Predict the structure.
Amino acid sequence: MVPRSTLPLPPSALLESPLSRGPGAAPMQRQLHDRLKGAILDGNLAPGSRLPGSRALAEALGVSRNTVTATYEHLAAEGYVRSDRQGTRVTELSSPTPSKRERADERTGRPPATPTTAQRLARILPSASRADMGAALRPGVPALSHFPLAAWRRSLERAIREGGSAALGYGDPLGEPALRAAITRHLSVARGVRCEPRQVLIAEGAQEAISLCVRLLSNPGDTGWVEDPGYRGAKAAMHAGDMRIVPMRVDAEGLCVDGRDWREHPPRLVYTTPSHQYPMGSVLSIARRLELIAQARRHGAWIVEDDYDSEFRHTGEPIVAMQGLVDDAPVLYVGSFSKTMFPALRLGFLVLPERLVDAVRTPLEEMLRGGHRYEQLAMADFMESGQFSRHLGRMRRLYRDRQQALRLALGRHFEVPHEIDGGHCGMHLTVRLPERFDDRKIAAEALRHRIAPTPLSGFAMQRVPPMPPIAPYSGLVLGYGNTPAELFGPLLSRLSRIARAVERGSA
């Protein structure tokens, strides 16, 4: 007796309803393919079931035989059916297809476990909303309306014309030589960085550069120091590398480290923003810089120097980078064009110590592919033509004026007890508040009004006892880069009312 599964099914068994026809309907081949695939996955067509012949099915459906034949061939290519001299049969799937009842049980059962790394990041790094990037007072957004688009377009056009079709292929994994040379010259003059073009690596923003430091120089379980409060991206990079993170306190002189820290939890990596601590705005003193370098050498640690916002210093001369303070410092220097140019450019750079270049070249060639070549060539042209320096000069003056205007507006319109930190550099001020003001609730409510300060408490990893009348890590980080000064008064009046309402609600 012939097994039941080998007998061909009648055409009517494959269709619960006719195929759709007329304007707007999907092609017949697509409809038939989806119908047969669904029947196989649902278990309505069991493994070994023989499908009707192409001629019989075509006649039953009122379609051409070519449509059925092409559908069977497509299903065979995907592995749902197989064809031989005896016809077309449903294949045995690698795992048995669950029944409808079994699938319903699965949907009500326990979902797959979230990976531990994702759980740790979600717990330690509270969500920072990226919605409504045009909202007022958002930190980290430059004055985009003041960017010289015409000059940038000319640089892009030259890059495309001179790079030609050759620039459509993969480039040097470490980045375009022209841009690495331009960055080297700029850093030497503007930041006191000691390097050659071979030490410069182009990354997709500062975040990727920090992640590369973790991947290249640490092992799972190694200790990493981060500023607290500090940049969340550095913590995320270390968590992704399974490092043990130790939060280090920050004061008016920057990162606080003593001999006990080096003895009890010596680090493999130390992340710091010495020229403009983010978010508190302090500058790491020269004594602490030199001591940090000396201790890092003694303990075999690497310092990741993120030169955040250093190009926009509003008073005095620019602070020289740690990397160039002493010969052969164990410092990896991280920079980005997200603030000096525009965030969507996604270009950053990492300056490697000379002794690391040869050791990491081979792994870097496997990890990177050398993309964004036209943008890199255009950036090199923008720098070499002098447009970059001129743009920086204009932005320094604009941000200095906006910073002063924001200070005045805080005094006149923000009717909440507060203290201001930072302001000598960059594009933000940090306003610390009494602990009774829940900064996260204030920020969430403000966003509903298209005002986007960042809660200071979101940058801190450990709770510090309050120091009345102002709590150390409760407050708002206010960005003034992309917000016109004439809006500061109305915005801060609204923010003040929001803060008062949150205070009454918590009381």
About this structure: The radius of gyration is 30 Å.
